Amino acid sequence: MLNRQIAPPIKDATEFKLDLPPYKKHVLSNGVEIYAIDLGNVDAMMINWVFDAGNWFDARNGIAAATNRLLKNGTSTRSAFEINEHFEYYGAYLSRSCHHETADLTLHCLNKHVAELLPVVAELIADSVYPQEELEIYKKNAQQRLEVNLKKSEFVAGRLIDVYLYGEEHPYGRYSRMEDLQALERDEIVEFYKQYYQNGACRMFVAGKLPADLPLQLERYFGKLPLHAPVKGDVSYQPLIKPAKEKKYDIINDPNGVQGSIRIARNFPNRHHPDFQKVQILNNVFGGFFGSRLMTNIREDKGYTYGIYSYLVNNMQESALMISTEAGKEVCRATIEEVYKEMQELCDEPIDDEELQMVRNLTIGTILGDLDGPFQVASRWKNILLNGLDEKYFYEGIHIVKTITPEELQELAKKYLDPAAFFELIVV
Asked: Max CA-CA distance within the chain?
């Protein structure tokens, strides 16, 4: 019998054994790979089509984003209204998103309705027509959003810091201007669609309580399309990263504003570098969660901001170590000085065992949350596979969390937390 008057023993999260649920791989007749996570008791599922169609492949700013956004706005047999009505009728949601290297279509639905929904998704990939009137609506809305966003200091800061890190000609540093949106033409969007969607490189991630015949359904609707698997090791386009020569910038965006947006960042290698996962632990100590040193000092002690965080930017080719916050414009400079003081302290003194154990538990707990459910597991696998890694990377990360020492973290701080290596931007 369970005695509820006796409290159960408390365990550190680091004592838990974490397992990454495996995927089952299917390959369609056209070579497209499917990664299936069959988990869960809820009659729901997710299918994610990932195309090599991000802004990395833009011939001109904004084409990739517009092509992705307008993908469900009309085919030769259905209008945008009819497409949306079809998905709503079955209680499904089809979203799309465009990133640096990739662009996505993601379907969430009840598994009993997937057979009615897949043909329409296949129709969008094979037969979108991009009506001129839909493009005009998109351009008008995009310009209005941009006009509003350019008045926000945090939006401007996010654009500019990427330019300083990578260069304005690099896909990571490019951003759309008003004239780019005005210049969008249907012909170039259709050409991008034909090359990168109709005949593009595609991968699929499916998760949830999956129907037994799902592979057959996917083969039926997508296996005969002229899609193909990504070409491994394709380095046909490798733009040079050209960081800015100057390190410090003060931008006045709104003379009447009372708040400034601060970005402090340095270039950093991608996930294949041996220090990447170790620096993630250092970053958690520094500014990666609500109880971090940056938050404790700058929010709790000084009261300069509602929140301040540091993080490693999620890019495939090259990452960045970023510190981001908003503060009253009269204390922006003092906020930056406190950030540098916290960097110096991590370089000067090893982290004590109690703080390190707390960060270990936090990190393991975060990973446990990321594995709570089939969609989260699929997202974890997607991140691993799209970056050219495998399950070894996951388990190496767990080992690092549990075994990294204060001395190792101090050496990493000396290597990567040098204020002279950081770009510094204030936008008010």
From this structure: 73
Sign of CA dihedral 139, 145, 149, 151: positive
The CA-CA-CA angle for residues 29, 34, 35, to 5°, reads: 155
Burial 27-64 (b: 16+ CB within 10 A, else e): ebeeebebbbbbbbeeebbbbbbbbbbbbbbbeebbbb
388-428 pLDDT per residue, tens: 999 999 999 999 999 999 999 999 999 999 999 999 999 99
What angle (nearest 5°) sits at the alpha carbon of residue 52, between those of residues 265 and 70? 95
The predicted-structure confidence for 241-269, as pLDDT tens digits, reads as follows: 999 999 999 999 999 889 999 999 999 99
Q: How far is Cα 308 from Cα 289, in angstroms, rounded to an integer?
A: 9
* C-alpha 76: how far from chain center: 33
**C-alpha triplet 204, 54, 125: angle, nearest 5°:** 50
Query: Letter for the amino acid at 125?
Result: I
CB atoms within 10 A of CB 112: 12
Instruction: Report strand pairing: 423-427 vs 248-251.
Output: parallel
Q: Which tokens belong to 269?
A: 């290698």
Asked whether residue 29 carries a pLDDT value surpassing 80, the answer given is yes
Question: Contact at 8 Å (CB) between 279 and 266?
Answer: no
Q: Are 209 and 43 in contact (CB under 8 A)?
A: yes
Pick from 405, 412, 147: which is nearest to 273 by CA? 412
Residues 205-219, mean pLDDT to the nearest whole number: 97
Q: Where are the alpha helices (DSSP H) in 24-113?
A: 63-69, 80-89
